[in-house]
Design brief:
The complex is a heterodimer of chains A (about 350) and B (about 130).
Chain A: H1 7-12, E1 16-20, E2 23-28, H2 32-41, E3 44-47, E4 52-57, H3 61-68, E5 81-87, E6 93-103, E7 106-111, H4 116-126, E8 132-135, E9 140-146, H5 150-157, E10 173-178, E11 181-186, E12 195-201, H6 205-216, E13 222-223, H7 226-235, H8 270-279, E14 283-290, E15 301-304, E16 307-318, E17 323-331, E18 338-343, E19 346-353
Parallel strand pairs in A: 3-13
Antiparallel strand pairs in A: 1-2, 3-9, 4-7, 4-8, 5-6, 6-7, 9-12, 10-11, 11-12, 14-17, 14-19, 15-16, 15-18, 16-17, 18-19
Helix pairs in contact in A: 2-7, 5-6
Chain B: E1 8-9, E2 14-19, E3 22-27, H1 29-35, E4 38-43, E5 49-50, E6 55-61, E7 65-69, E8 74-79, H2 81-85, H3 89-92, E9 101-105, H4 108-111, H5 118-128
Antiparallel strand pairs in B: 1-2, 2-3, 3-9, 4-6, 5-8, 6-7, 8-9
The chains are: A alpha+beta (about 350), B alpha+beta (about 130).
């Protein structure tokens, strides 16, 4: 088992812990619903130090990344970031990630905790030209501050965020100073709220966490566990690796075709994606809001007129809607306003909706 | 963790308040704490005949789904409909407003020995962590 630098802090805060991606992580502190609503209405702080940071640097780094990943790397300026994938030859998703362009020919991939090793091995195997690849996950800590008051709280710790012309836009990042050390502050997140993610040397993570908690206290900031992280992302229809995304499925069915830039001449997985498009995508990812009180769960079957048309990938209770919600892959040809979900052998009706479940 | 002395318990974390042959059933404080926010409850209907250890319903938190098992055999006489509308009672008042079913026990003498008293249950939970 791995531990983030904040492990003792979580225990002191009374967190219930769970294993996630090989780490002992907080599932919840006060309760998932309470934490979820704190992020929607005020602010929350998340320990996401379990996430991985893989650096790709060197003379050919840009060329290599442009070929390795499907989004437009050449469109990124230093200080900009975008969502992307590592795809295999079949167009399946090895991982989903955020790519940060640190400088010319210098990139950081922020990857899922459970995939750090797999990703690193994959990138090393594909390596081309003069590039240096390093996994700096063990020495890098990461804290996420999310919610409508996140910006106000962050500006109290990093005054540079308020300087006109220096404010960072969504999916950009800049350097901040904390106790004389550099912090990368990125305006990104996984909640649908405004928010910031801070990459910092692991020896300073606890101090940064404490500073954010102290400055955020008057604004009602709360520590948020992985339970609420999951309900927050589910309400936004954001995919979670292992649920909506895996190595046997392309990103196209997951409404993520916008990430895949087919106008690029070549990138890993492009040929497979091209033929997938030509053959037609057989599944589509939809949202389903339950009409009654029941709660759909991962792997429940989706049924229309006695026929199985799909399967739930994410099923949970939505604290914002006070209803059960599901993300499900269903047959592309199906165009139904209502479907049934088989929950413990009883069909419960749900309304098919466009994702996200809540509009921000 | 609250473990009222006057109740009997199962290792599946149900409690039973036994008054003659009338038995009120719910889940324990330990169970609600482990589950987290309870958001859905499904119970068998009144009139259903239960056997000891048989499933009488389901409780769901945001994150998890758990079956409920009858601590004793008997016919269900009453179901807490209020609780179905307010699953959060399980977290707030597990031994009071969150009672789930009442049944008329019909094999109490033989089955009582299968239940734990408060001290034994508390010890069991502490060992489970």
């Amino acid at each position: 088992m791995n531990y983030t630098p904040l492990y003792e802090t979580h225990k002191k805060l009374g967190a219930k812990l769970m294993e996630f991606g090989g780490f002992d992580m907080p599932l919840q502190y006060t309760g998932i619903i309470d934490e979820h609503l704190a992020v929607r209405n005020k602010a929350g702080i998340f320990d996401v130090s379990h996430m991985g940071e893989i650096f790709i640097e060197g003379r050919d780094a840009q060329t290599f990344c442009e070929w390795l990943t499907p989004n437009h790397i050449t469109a990124l300026q230093p200080g900009q970031a975008h969502y992307s994938f590592l795809l295999n030859e079949g167009g399946g998703v090895i991982d989903d990630l955020i790519i940060y362009k640190l400088a010319e020919n210098s990139f950081m991939f922020c990857v899922n905790a459970s995939n750090i090793n797999k990703d690193y091995q994959w990138i090393m195997k594909q390596k081309q030209g003069s590039v240096h690849i390093s996994d700096r996950s063990p020495e890098t800590g990461m804290i996420s501050v999310q919610g409508p008051l996140a910006g106000t709280i962050m500006a109290l710790i990093f005054p540079s965020l308020q300087v006109p012309g220096k404010t960072i836009k969504r999916f950009t990042f800049s350097a901040g100073d904390f106790k004389g050390r550099q912090v990368s502050i990125s305006r990104t997140g996984y909640t649908g709220e405004d928010g910031y993610e801070c990459f910092i040397d692991k020896t300073l993570v606890v101090e940064l966490w404490n500073a954010v908690m102290e400055k955020g206290m008057p604004y009602g900031i709360k520590p948020i566990g992985l339970g609420a992280r999951d309900t927050l992302r589910a309400e936004m229809g954001y995919p979670l690796y292992g649920m909506e995304l895996n190595e046997t499925m392309t990103p196209l069915a997951a409404n993520l075709g916008w990430v895949v830039k087919m106008d690029k001449k070549s990138f890993m997985g492009r040929d497979a994606l091209k033929s997938a498009v030509q053959q037609g995508i057989s599944k589509k990812l939809v949202g389903i809001i339950m009409n009654g009180k029941s709660i759909p769960r991962h792997q429940n079957l989706v049924v229309l007129k006695d026929k199985v048309i799909g399967e739930v990938t994410t099923g949970t209770y939505s604290p914002s809607l006070s209803r059960g919600i599901a993300m499900a892959y269903i047959d592309t040809a199906v165009d139904a306003a209502e479907v049934g979900i088989d929950i413990r052998s009883i069909l419960h009706s749900g309304t098919v909706v466009q994702l996200p479940f809540i509009k921000k | 963790m609250q473990v009222p002395k006057d109740l009997k318990y199962t290792k599946e974390h149900e409690w039973a308040r036994i008054e003659g042959s009338a038995v009120t059933i719910g889940i324990t404080d330990y169970a609600q704490d482990k589950l987290g926010d309870v958001v859905f409850i499904e119970l068998e209907d009144a009139g259903t005949q239960m056997k000891q250890g048989e499933k009488f319903g389901t409780v769901e938190s945001v994150k998890s789904v758990s079956d409920l098992f009858a601590p004793l055999s008997g016919k269900i006489r009453e179901v807490n409909k209020d609780l179905v509308d307010h699953p959060e009672f399980v977290n707030k008042d597990p031994y009071g407003k969150a009672w789930m079913i009442k049944l008329a026990a019909d094999a109490l003498k033989n089955e009582l020995a299968n239940l734990l008293d408060a001290d034994a249950y508390e010890k069991y939970c502490k060992e489970a962590g």
